[in-house]
Every structure is written in structure tokens, then in C-alpha cells.
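Fold this complex.
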Amino acid sequence: MEAEPPISYRVLRRELVSILRRKCPGWLRGSVDDLAQEAVLRVWEIQQRSEQDRTFSSFYLRKVAYSVLVDEIRRTVRRKEEPLDVEGEPPTGASTALGPDQHLASREMGRAIVDCMGSMNRNRCRALTLRRLGHNAQEVADLLGWGLKQARNRIYRGLADLRLCLSKKDFTF
Amino acid sequence: MNREPQQAIERIRVSLRAAAGEQVPRADCPPGARLWEAVAGELSPKEVGELTDHVASCLLCGQLWEVARELREEPQSPPVVLQGPSPRRDTHLWWRYGRLAAALLIVAVGLFAVRLWAPSEDTEITTLRGVEGFSLRLSTPKTLPRRNFLLRWGEIPDGVRCEVRVVWSTEEDQELVDEVEDLHAAEYLVPEEKLRVLSTGSRLRYTVVAFHRGLEISSKSGIVELE
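Structure:
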């Protein structure tokens, strides 16, 4: 008869599966169990180096799960060239309703945005990048070691630069 | 007074998400743990700035950054406690010393066997069934410079392809540094950009998997320190 894993390992695995289910892109959902196993192994390896009982915060477990997920997403994208949407759930709001034409137009604009940001003042580009990644102005300031006012200014100026650059490329923004 | 148009930011996000579908991971993509640390505020502003420069043009890393930020913002749940490898509480001295003696004996026999059968170099050999005379000989130099981080594993006969996986390993963590597939050579030079974020003295573990007609073998790990 196969021995039951200790309760703490079952709790660990359940926690990791739960994190991965929430954040796994749809096209990777079938691999959640394997990814959880990989994450359990990583935690187990770390734990084995310790002589004593060890407490793993949920924050730490998320970091491990995230790390495993990033490796797998990159590996899969490289191998299969899967359509890339790494979000756990479909994005909310207007973007979910994009038809093929709109999607194509958005993609064109996306390329233009990357191009414009590449030629933008570096600090403005950094500020705008972090802002569009979901950080608020205060977080942008904290992450980049700026004052709040400075961060806000750079976000606005970055947006203004982007508008100007896109208009030169015949995009209305 | 400046007003930040939320709609504009949302439009940028939607457009970049649409364009992200065309991208694949780049050689200079930072390890996932590095992105996590940046989002968690564990890096210096200079380091965050450098990562942001990468993320500005690498849309895949941008999406992964967003996943890290969302995960970080989730509420905490109770921690998980794992038991350490607890020693059996044996009180009899004869039992303790008996086990010690047995362990020493096993080590001595092991060392003797290693000396008897080990190859002359510091290598790990594995044989791939189905390919006569082929063995996966993993060279394990102790240190390698980052400019020439060349991993080697003997010779590869025709028809055998290899995959290499390089992992950065610390006491606390491990992180995939590089991974390549479809190699038909017996060596691989890890690009310097991949090692850029690692400090001198970092220990990297690498494994090689060889494939031939549906069969595969995996080498044991080689550990190399970054000079």
C-alpha cells in the first residue's frame, strides 16, 4: 500500500495548485498538476536543507509558484509558439469584445507604441511602462526612487510624447 | 493640474496585449524571480529601472510582470509549516554508535567503489540504450568565466539531439537561467546576457538530456561556479 503524504505536504500542494489555477493561462490549465508538483519539489528541496521545521509564508509560496509558471510559459511559447496571453482570466472590459479587425488594429497600434516608447526620454518611458503595468503613481515613485510629483509628471509627459509620436504615425490616440 | 487619462492607459494595455502574441522569449529576458523581486520592491531603483527598460520592449515579460503584481497584491493566507528531517530519538548508546559505524562503513565502501570504477576525469557518465557505444559524459569544471561559460558533455553521434537546462541555485531558491533544445553539438555556450544578473560566485547547476529514436537519458547535475 502506498504511504499517504504528510498533511503539511498535502496543504502545501493544495496551496500551490490553488495559486497556479488562478494565474495559469487557459492554454496551460491542463498542466497545473505537473506545475504544482514541480513547485512542491522546489519547496521540498529548500526545506531539506533545513535541520528544523520550516514555515513557508503564502507570499513565499506564490513566489515559487510564479517562478515555475514563468519557466513553463516561456518554455511553451518557445516550443509551440502559442498565442500569447499569459493572463489567468480573460481581460475584463472592452478588450474582451475585440473582433478580428479591432484586434488587428490594436496589434498595429501595439507595435507602434513599442516603437514610440523606444525613442522616448528614458525616464518618461520607465514611468509610463510601470504605469501601464498596473502600478499607481506612488508605486512608480517608490520603485524608481523618485518623488511622487516627479513620477506623476513623467507619466503625463510620457503620455503626451506617446500621443505625439503616434499621431506622426497616423494613429489617433 | 495634470489629469491622468485612465482610458489612455487602458488603450495602451489593450494594444500591447494584442501585439504580445507575436513575441517569443528573448535571450536577455530576466529570470522570473528577478521580475518578482522588482515588483516586490526588493531591488534598488537602478535595478528596477534596468528591468523596466527591458519590459518596455519585451511584451511577454510585461505580461509576466503584471501576473507577479497581481499575485503580490492578493491577501495573505496562513503559512505552511513543513517538518524538518527529524532525527529518531534513540536513547541507547549502542544503537547510536552502531549506526555511526554502519554509516562510516558504507561511506568507506562507497569511496572504494568510486575509486575503482570512476573515470579519470571529474565526469558523470550515462549511457543511452540503442546507441552503441554512446555515453553522456558531463564535464564539470568547477568555475567558468561569464564571457565564456561553455558547458561540455563529450561527443554526440549522428541522430542524437540534446537539451540543456541551466539553473541558478541558492540556499533559498532556484531559478531557470537558460534552456536550449535541438542541440546537435556536445557543448553549449551560455550567452553572457543570461548571466548578467548573477553575481560572481553564483552556483549554476546544469543538466543535459540526450534523445535518440524515442529514447532519452538525462545526465546528473553538474555544478559550475560563475567567475
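DSSP finds seven helices and one strand in chain A.
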